[in-house]
Amino acid sequence: MTLFASQSQSNDRIYTVSSLNAQVRLILENEMGIVWLVGELSNFSMPISGHWYFTLKDSRAQVKCAMFKGNNRHVSFKPSNGNQILVKARLSIYEPRGDYQLIIESMQPEGDGRLQQQFEQLKMTLAAEGLFAQSLKKTLPPQPQRVGIVTSKTGAALHDILQVLKRRDPSLAVVIYPTMVQGDGAAISIAQAIGRANARQECDVLIVGRGGGSLEDLWAFNEEIVARTIAASQIPIVSAVGHEVDVTIADFVADMRAPTPSAAAELISRDNSAQTATIVHKKRQLQHAVQRYLSKQNQSINLLSHRLERQHPQLRLNQQQQHLDDISRRLQQIMLKKIQIQQQRITKNTYKLSLYSPQQRLQQDKNALTTATRRLFDAMDRQLLNANHKLALAAEKLDTVSPLATLSRGYSITRDDKGNVIRRCDQVKAGDQLITTVTDGKIHTTVNPS
Predict the structure, then answer these.
(1) Is 91 within 8 Å of 29 (Cβ atoms)?
(2) pLDDT tens column, 113-127
(3) CA-to-CA distance for 175 and 202, rounded, in angstroms?
(4) Residue 114 has what DSSP assignment?
């Protein structure tokens, strides 16, 4: 009974399709929040609106994605089908079709993206533990007597640091703790060098760093073992990794961050003027205070921005633009189909017209006339052949009754000079001239008296 009552209550509200899709979209966006995904990019398209639409897939599944132009203009590479990418996204629904999709906020190639993700995860973990807290930062000695340098003994960073120290304070003693700064085992090597410096307690301050490079090149300074070793150091540490734009986990844990190795040397060395050194020190403190303040403000802004984005009109505009892109694609397909149908009709009508064309009828009549002419000549030939055959038969019959045939058998015909055939002796008298026709000529004779 309880189950039946619960089901009845859950069915009290009747949704429209539109309201259901809108409600599901709000649940997805509010409950799931931000997700990270890695996969293969496919079916990439970029309509005239400037938005990107594509599919993210792996070997067993796929999901549709949309990245609006406000976000995709920050992508540092040109995406193409087949790329392995890492994306930061929030779940949503394209309401007109009810399609589940991802709204992409950032995109990176998988290799760099994974390192960046590991960086962010470790940063959040250490921050939550309080390793970045300002209260843990040790104050740098105002006039150190001996400085330790943890870096590669063959790197340009060591040369730059020594040059600056020599120029600013030649009397300052230097101890070098050589270490690997890149590749497998570099993080352990750096941690061991910092440990040796703390065990010997022969330096007032340590500079830990190296020259610039890619995120992968600098990764040893993003390892957890290095961060925790720096945080546990009893000697104040200045982080001096890469160039000014390079930021590592070591920078957040160290007691002071210098934008470059040379700047670290300037930071810890005495200047010719104590007043200038004090100003520089205060400036650094002010910069760090401002940076911390700005960092907190940025976090607040990002949080408020994320909340605002969920209710921002641009979200609806993006969805409407996606709907418009979808309608545009469907309209193009319909137009192409209609054009194909019209072309088929034109081809069919052209064929029908050709069947009733006067030229074709004329050609048919010409062909018929040619055929009739050929038949007429054939008939004439047959008639002539029959006539010749009949003539030959008649000639043969005539030859059988011809006198000439009789003559050829040894007979002759005798006529008088008047041409009368002599059949009896009483038809002639002495002295008559007679002509006897034989097979090969005529014989003239005269009748003698008996």
Answers:
(1) yes
(2) 566 767 778 888 888
(3) 8
(4) H
